[in-house]
Amino acid sequence: MSQQLSQASAAPHHPPRRVAVVLFNLGGPDAPEAVRPFLFNLFNDPAIIRLPNPFRFLIASLISGRRAKPATAIYAHLGGRSPLLENTEAQAAALEGRLEADPALPGAETRVFIAMRYWHPMSAETAARVKAYDPDLVVLLPLYPQFSTTTTASSAKVWNEAARMVGLDVPTRLVCCYPTLAGFIDATADLVRPLYEAARAHGTPRILFSAHGLPKKVVAGGDPYQWQCERTAESIAAAIGVDQLDWVGCYQSRVGPMEWIGPSTDAEIRRAGQDGVPVLVVPMAFVSEHSETLVEIEIEYRHLAKEAGVPHFTRVPTVGAHPGFIDGLAGLVRQSVAGRAPICSQKGDRICPGTQSGCPQPRR
Ligand SMILES: C=CC1=C(C)c2cc3[nH]c(cc4nc(cc5[nH]c(cc1n2)c(C)c5CCC(=O)O)C(CCC(=O)O)=C4C)c(C)c3C=C
Ligand SMILES: [Fe+2]
Ligand SMILES: [Fe+2]
Predict the structure, then answer these.
(1) Domains in the chain, number
(2) Of 9, 82, 139, 241, which one is least surrounded by beta carbons within 10 A?
(3) 153 and 53 in one domain?
(4) Beta strands 172-174 and 109-116, pairing class
(5) Can you give the residue range of the structural domain that contains 192?
(6) Could you tell me the pTM of the whole model?
(7) What is the number of the ligand 1 atom nearest to the C-alpha of 119?
């Protein structure tokens, strides 16, 4: 098997002195000029456009050119840039603070780094910084609660290549996913409850648990993302603690001509309008704010809800650096150090193999 696999599964011989935690996230453009190259990087990812080169390169050039204008208009609502990096930095700082002097990591120093997939800081830059830190264990921690070949696996693959390029040759563990992690579920439910109570003044609210969608054929190929999103939605619904809660899981952010998984969030907003119920949109796959939450949900879906006759519309914020969520992430780091986290074996990069204890299983 590959060197990465043996790195990923190898245990350090002694408790680690220095642990590098690398947060994986998508990245977003930091200026209007960055929108097109950011989109090119995204569509040139073989996990997104599954074609060999030179076809992928040509398609990526074409789509990023076409999508640049509407995407720039989206980011214009946010001052021309994505806030994803700042928000990820705030989470990294909170996690580093939480792990400092953590009694579960006796004697270990932990530093938290960020590796974005499609914009800076990308894996190559971060791997060089991690190497300079000289850790004896690396924990790869995706800021994606649910595993997808298009997100976590794609980041892990690029990280492994970057680590090899800079000669970073230390035991490395990838946390595959945490769709029902108590810290994530309870922090989300905490954010929902007061907004749900406020919405009650307008009728019996319906909660739309909304996640970024995926093309149907990615799911048909074995990607466990949709299955894990369903587990997240039912866990948050239970944690909210309202009897006979009206809720539905749905998917937003469809791009391109392919068929995507559903139901779509916009169709659910229209249905809520027909039923005359107040709506709360709860992000279930995003853990910080960016264009998908601040523009698509806050501006576009709010507007659609008004048009569709929804009596009251609420966007529930993402967990961000909520202490409960950060505690949950710290727990995953502790478990990884101890070799007990839901860790993907990285057996291929197609699907989460679900072979480790705690690794949620997709339906077969
Ligand atoms: C075209 C295919 C895409 C797939 C498959 C996809 C999967 C996927 N993406 C996220 C999270 C985010 N995506 C974001 C932006 C974004 N995503 C795509 C396309 C696909 N994503 C595009 C073209 C864009 C750019 C914006 C646009 O043009 O509409 C973002 C926001 C980034 C930011 O604003 O900083 C996030 C976050 C997940 C979780 C996912 C699969 C599970
Ligand atoms: Fe996306
Ligand atoms: Fe897994």
Answers:
(1) 2
(2) 241
(3) yes
(4) unpaired
(5) 182-315
(6) 0.92
(7) 35
What pLDDT digit, counting tens, does each position of 47-67 carry?
999 999 999 999 999 999 999
Please state the rounded mean pLDDT for residues 18-33. 97
Instruction: Please identify which residue in the block is written with the tokens 């809660």.
Output: 245
Residues 320, 295 contacting (CB under 8 angstroms) = no
Identify residue 285 by its one-letter amino acid code: A
Q: What is the ipTM of this complex?
A: 0.91
- Which residues have their alpha-adjacent CB atom under 5 A from ion ligand 3? 176, 344, 352, 359
Residue 69 lies in a domain: yes
Residue 155 lies in a domain: yes
Say if residues 316 and 240 touch (Cβ distance below 8 Å). no
Counting ligands in written order, which one lies closest to the CA of residue 142?
A: 1
**Residue 120 and residue 65 share a domain:** yes
Task: Compute the distance between CA of residue 313 and CA of residue 305 in angstroms, rounded to an integer.
Answer: 7
Same structural domain, 213 and 124:
no
Which of 235, 313, 221, 314 is closest to 276 using CA atoms? 313
Question: In angstroms, what is the span from residue 172 Cα to ligand 1's centroid?
Answer: 26
Return all residues near 273 (Cβ < 8 A) that are at least 6 apart: 305, 307, 308, 309, 310
Of 301, 313, 318, 196, nearest in space to 245 by CA: 196
